[in-house]
Amino acid sequence: MNRARVAPLPTARRRVLAAALALVAAGRVPRAFAAARPRIDVWKSPSCGCCEGWIAHLRAAGFEVVARDEGNTDARARLGMPLAYGSCHTGEVAGYALEGHVPAVEVRRLLQQRPDAVGLAVPAMPVGSPGMDGPEYGGRRDAYDVLLVLRDGRASVYRAYR
Question: pLDDT 10s per residue in the chain (162 long)?
């Protein structure tokens, strides 16, 4: 039998690996690992197909999504998202509000940058945004902005989609 010989890990690497395994075993996963799959809670209407499309988009991007079919009016108010930026569903991730069809890439950027803000919004329901991009729209894409909504109710363009 031909056995390949594996060199032992250096002492420092063994200590780091042992510490990481101990944290996992204790249920204390380092933040870098826990942030790999952030959880987004979504409040929506039980009959909204575009909301389901947005949830599928988030899940495909690696987010854990918990959907609540109880409407989003109370969630929007609780999170401090002004009605002027309203849409058909509201999400919450790491204390931030996500209003409407916000692309997953912008959610990830929000979580990396951690601005002092209420969250992100894509007001109304622009065709071509995640969840509003199915075959029933015939490939049509409207221009839209992802807004960064500040705590004083003002907003600025976080990213423009043209």
Answer: 444 444 454 565 455 445 544 444 444 444 444 457 999 999 999 888 899 999 999 999 999 999 999 999 999 999 999 999 999 999 999 999 999 999 999 999 999 999 999 999 999 999 999 999 999 999 999 999 999 999 999 999 999 999
- Where residue 78 sits, what CATH number does that domain have? 3.40.30.10
3-class SS letters over 59-123: HHCCCEEEEECCCCHHHHHHHCCCHHHCCCCEEEECCEEEEECCCHHHHHHHHHHCCCCCEEEEC
How many domains, the chain?
1
Q: 0.85 exceeded by the pTM? A: no
Domain for residue 92, yes or no? yes
